[in-house]
Amino acid sequence: MTTITTRNLKSYYGDFQALFGVDVTFKSGETTAIIGANGAGKTTLMKSICGMINTTPQMIYVDDVAVGGRPAHTVIETGIAMVPEGRRLFPSLSVEENIVLGSHSHRSGPWSLERIYDLFPVLAERRHLSGTSLSGGQQQMVSIGRALMSNPTMLLCDEISLGLAPVIIEDLYTTIKTLKDEGMSIVIVEQDIQRALSVADTVYCMQEGRVSLSSSAAEVSLDAIRDAYFGM
Ligand code: ATP
């Protein structure tokens, strides 16, 4: 089981500061949604947690162990996997090769190629095709499958619905719910507020590099979200 906590997290791209003291907790077994306008810092938060942006150790904890500043491959060993915005598949590799790329972790667990194909049968049929020859929704399945191959206990999903048709998004969120029911801790970055609230236990809204709202998803009002989203 994994709980992630950030404490006064500050992140920079060179001299540009993107996060200004972010405190969030992603609880074990829960689904947490991160919402916020373009440029609010949602992706930067995900990247910081995954070790893709340098931070100090005291800013990020996994189950009370300080992991800020560690290289990304060591963060994967703590049970965190990211489904990146834009899917990031390798065009020269097949569907199967793209999925298997995610298995470079020493973690043991239930996930295998066979189990990914059980979750997404269409990928088994297309396993030998180029990853980028698939539809957008199928590419997103490959990206999720690749993340699951590291046997994570916490899955960070950055805008998995971007650019996809509503019926495909519905299918992907059914998968997210299945994973949650199996005990996976999940963080979703999502532009669609209603959809985020429909799956989340806890919701954070970000604005200009800060957390502007933190609430139970069941109890939050749309007025509070509007204020936090637009800074009213
Ligand atoms: P979006 O919904 O557009 O993905 P976001 O909430 O994920 O937005 P971030 O991508 O985290 O926002 O961006 C936060 C801030 O950091 C923005 O001002 C953005 O312009 C800046 N930023 C993001 N990536 C870089 C980068 N590689 N170099 C410099 N600045 C960056």
Descriptive overview:
By secondary structure, the chain is α/β, with parallel strands linked by helices. It has a domain at 1-79 and 154-160 and 186-232: Rossmann fold (3-Layer(aba) Sandwich), CATH 3.40.50.300. Helix content is 33%, strand content 25%. The protein contains nine helices and ten strands. It has helices spanning 42-49, 72-76, 95-100, 113-119, 121-125, 136-148, 166-181, 193-199, 222-230; strands spanning 4-13, 16-26, 31-36, 60-62, 65-66, 80-83, 154-158, 185-189, 202-207, 210-216. The strands form two sheets. A six-stranded mixed sheet has the order 6-7-8-3-9-10, sandwiched between helices. The protein has a four-stranded antiparallel sheet with strand order 2-1-4-5, with helices on one face. The longest helix is centred in the C-terminal third of the chain and has 16 residues, at 166-181. It starts with a strand and ends with a helix. It binds adenosine-5'-triphosphate. Adenosine-5'-triphosphate binds at residues 13, 16, 18, 36, 38-44, 85.
